[in-house]
Amino acid sequence: MKKILLATIALSMFATPAAFAQQYRGDRDQGRGHGGYEQQHRQPQMKKHDYRKRWSKGQRVPSQARGNRVDYKRHHLKAPPRGYQWVENDGQYLMIGIASGLIAAIANPGR
């Protein structure tokens, strides 16, 4: 009787991993759609940003597009309040928040 019980337990221990392995193979391709490996491992396309645009008040300027800091006295601009600075971006002077990048004021040179 003990031999039959031990044989049944041993058989169930070896059969359980095989059952899970077969189930996993059946679920392997679900949810991937057509294309399998190639579709899942395609290189992401990097978007090119064109920061040469006309800005408007209230927009957020990305850190890559903040341009060069400007001496406001030399360019006859009003003094920025604490936490703001003037930057030049494609011919426009933008007063932006240093931490947030939000545009508080815009000045066009020579106008």
From TrEMBL:
Pfam families: RcnB. InterPro entries: RcnB (IPR024572). Residues 44-57 have a biased composition (Basic residues). The keyword Signal applies. Residues 1-21 form the signal peptide. Keywords: Signal. Residues 24-75 are annotated as: Disordered. This is Ni/Co efflux regulator RcnB.
